[in-house]
Amino acid sequence: MSINKAFSPQEYEAFRKFLQEACGILLGDNKQYLVSSRLGKLMAQKNLGSLTDLVREIERNPRGGLKEAVVDAMTTNETLWFRDVHPFNILQDRVLPELAPKLKAEPLKIWSAACSTGQEPYSISMVIEEFRKKNPSALRTGERILGTDISPTALNAARSGTYEMLALGRGLSKDRLTQHFTQTGEGRWKVNPNIQKRVDFRSINLLHSYSMLGRFDVVFCRNVLIYFSAELKRDILKRIHGTLKPGGYLFLGASEALSNMPELYEMVQCRPGIIYRAK
Fold it and tell me: pTM (2 decimals)?
């Protein structure tokens, strides 16, 4: 069974509403091809011939797992190692040297929101490892990195810490591959234990509460807010502020900007790159 037929405006709009309510993603007006490509196999397995049938089945059996499977399919995205480079240079050269002396009894805590299959939190862990080697007396209280995502499939891949060479070629230098990974055979490499041990993964929907996560020195929320409405984006940024310690830093994506929230965040120009300090 295929859903490559054209969707009626009504059924596509109903699915857009469902997806936004479920996970915050606001599909564009002309993303029918994306829905078709990502849900075709799942709908065939469930013998569902249209988006209307899909939404009705979720409403009929809300605890049957179909809703979670749909959200998983629509939110699983490829990501890169050291994406955009500048944020990781800023973390290593500016933020860690500033924060490390201020840490007393607690470890450095960093949250990687919408971490997908783990490339970002593991990239952060590599930066910390390299910083520690250059500054052996720093970060004596340790470090904890939390990676969160809504997709169980992505989180399972992240927890395994094992990647094929094709995925490793997307942003990872040969030097870092050799330094931080061990080949396991058949073109697969596993993150070394010293990099993996400081990273934990949890399932979190960014529309839900963050209160159980604790407080962080740094939050990476990069290349995800572009999928949300302006109202949801502002709400998420306000609640992220609630997780940041005073003076903590927020990193956004290269195409994302934080505006009209001067009471919560102060823009910090890093040339190149911009980060935001929590007030």
Answer: 0.89
